[in-house]
Please model this.
Amino acid sequence: MFYREAGQFKSTYSADMAVFPLRQDRIGIAVILALAFIGVPLIGNDFFISSVMIPFLVFSLAAIGLNILTGYTGLISLGTAAFMGVGAYAAYKLTTAFPGINIIVLVLVSGLFSAAIGVLFGLPSLRIKGFYLAVATLAAQFFLQWAFVRVPWLFNYNASGAIEVPQRTLFGLPITGASASPETRYFVCLVLVVGLTWFASNLVHGKLGRSWMAVRDMDIAAELMGIKLLNAKLTAFAVSSFYAGVAGAMMIFFWYGGGEAADVFNIRLSFNILFMVIIGGLGSLIGSFFGAAFIASLPTILKFGLPALGVPLSGAAAEHVTFMLVGALIITFLIVEPHGLARLWQIGKQKLRTWPFPY
Amino acid sequence: MNVETMNVTGEPLHRDKGDVLLSVDNISLRFGGVKAISDVSFDIRKGEVRAIIGPNGAGKTSMLNCINGFYHPQEGQITYKGVRRAKVKPHQAAADGIARTFQNVALFKGMSTLDNIMTGRTLKMHRSFFWQALRHGPAMTEEIEHRKVVEDIIDFLQIQHIRKLPVGKLPYGLQKRVELGRALAMEPELLLLDEPMAGMNLEEKEDMCRFILDVNNQFGTTIALIEHDMGVVMDLSDRVVVLEYGRKIADGTPDEVKANQKVIDAYLGVAH
Amino acid sequence: MSDVAARPAPNLFAKGWVKTGLILVAIVAAAILGAQFDDSGTLYKVFIDPFQQMVQAPDLLAQTIWEGLVSGVLYALIALGFVLIFKASGVFNFAQGIMVVFAALTLVGLYEKGVPAFLAVILTLGVMFALAVTIERVVLRPLVNQPDIILFMATFGITYFLIGFGEALFGGNPKQMIADQLWLPKGAIDLKLFGGLVSLQKIDIAAAVIASIMIAALAAFFQYTRIGRALRAVADSHKAALSVGISLNQIWVIVWFTAGIVALITGIMWGARSDVSFALEIVALKALPVLILGGFTSIPGAIVGGLIIGIGEKMGEFYWGPLIGGGIESWLAYFIALGFLLFRPQGLFGDKIIERI
Model:
């Protein structure tokens, strides 16, 4: 009743081409942004912000990155975590080499390093397709993970072999390191994620996005349209790895605050991000957020939710149950809706559009 | 070569045809031991509708694949606009103004009609990555400019109502039309149509014929088409080349081809 | 016309630029490194020293190759499970690795509960059959006709479920395989070879023998039985097989069960060499480069690919690994496979793919 496009006529192409052509959608997005920027910091406590919201934002960005590669361009990657790692280590090297430069700038620049490595490992994609390519990305995963441990230059020859995140400030406010408050870290992440999501949305709605989807849907026809397959695939690898790299840098600098990075960027993480993309919906940016929210919050919900419901569950058992549940949910989702949460969202909106008189 | 080919220089019938746009000279194509095309030559003139016909497995689609660079023949050469083509990649052929449609519709199934046709404009859009990421200023102007062209094509093909639907779910006849639209969006000089009317009912066929003729007349696009419906072929085309088992058995105006004994044998079979 | 006529020149350049670039890089690299062929130079260490070591200590070489061979057999066994399922159901079964762990865990777990060893084997086979039926019912049947990537993802789901399930049932600690109770040989044979000692573990020999027998049995099963023929038909075309009255559901259960048997045998062999733990799950990923080498549908390919990867990886680690800090076993297999793939995208035994449009 309230969600209708009736009466909203588009008189220009630019209005018709807007990402949110419906007024109600625009209001919705404004409400969500207001909640994220004002509501969460006001209402949420430190635990909620630092163990739920920040991981959610980091994973969302990584999932958007992988979605660009897998969902929009149709190239499966099992090496997302490694590209995140490249971003994290690059940011660490950069900020220790140039402490004067703002850390946010460096986080974005470190994405470029990740993009370069991504392109390098994307090169085989011209000759290799489908599952074969998935194995090529495993090469990236294991090689880079090995490099994170075995190349001491990457962690500045620390005895611990770990990245130690130094304190960096923005306008005099510490945003990384031990004394940075969860709220500030959250704000930095939020601004980065919102900005980069906007870029991603622009890209997938434009010429580049169409080229990617054309390659995904029918690469032969795409080539006969004049799309250079290598260019399309490599730009997808570059953009995807850029997002992964920024997400990785954010993960270490604004969430973990250091630690055994090589351990973090393991193949499990790669798989988890792939699940976020699948469950959220391949080829959907909003789906990346849904998927990230779902997979990232599931362990927390099980860990704290079940005891609250009176089901006693030890830490180890909770982990097992999480594994089983994630596995079962993946299968259920694939059976019920192979297009993921994003499609359910669409169906829901469609229902709402005709409500309360669907006939 | 043991089969004699008949070379009839077809004089223009009802329209004024220009120079040779594309000529195929003695090309042969093999897959391992299988010969798909052996020693075929013919040419396509500017502005004409050229039909390639023949029984199933005659090498017609392989011929189109050679022309737009998807296959590379082992022998012979293809000259396009006076330039001999070495191993041209499909995207280079596209940049040179060769567009095509496919026998089994090869649309981008996950995309809307509008987006499918917009991909045809890819080569004509030049805004850099960074403008695209901003989607404002020059990138938006460009997008709108091309959207107008695409809307014209949508009007021309009368598919306004399916503009925003994903093409994967459209009926077959409409998919074929969208595919034609996508090829037209490239503003090609040479349009290759691979069985544009396969699987259509009479009404859809008539529509498609009209579109093809309109494209040829209004935009002066040269068209090479493969088609099994003889009535359509004879009505539409200026000249016809007939292939059988990868060899050319006849070449000429529809009337000449119709009267050719080898063609009749190929289609009806010969008593041995 | 004139601007068109100018095209071939940049064309030729564009075609050759990759090669030209590579040659230039090679020349520059050779010029820089050319001076390094003395005893401490990099090139000496990479291109000369390892081969000198091989010649000087052939017994070590033989030992390395043998160890490569043995791990190759185990990779080949995991890859075999993949190939069976891929051929019959077109599913890229990511869960094969975890099925190996799960089978081995079940076997050991049952034995620990007091079940006699051989009865435990039979019961484990029963569990694998139940697993095959469940997967067919719960996962494959509802997902029939979905795109490959969806089925691939579903096997991820199976993997995660089995990890959680296995850990919940048997705990996450590494376990000892009941090798003695299954009459598997212990100890080593020391061969005097090339003036040194080459030590062959008896269990490794047994693994190689059992793997060969199993592969022969599978080949015979595929070639000579009615079900084998049906399997091959399904592998060729699902629709055609359905149309001649082959039950896809039945075939899938059989194939997944066969893969389960292969998994159990792999698990026993692997477990007897090290121990039974979930670490195997990561090792099992090595079957993927093996598949790339051999092609997804070729059983001989899986075997040859497994041996190449096994030997290549062990030799790489032993002779070249120390040069860059060691531990390169974790990724070398993938790079060997990638190298092959760039030259033969269809794998060692695959046919050249002709794309049709």
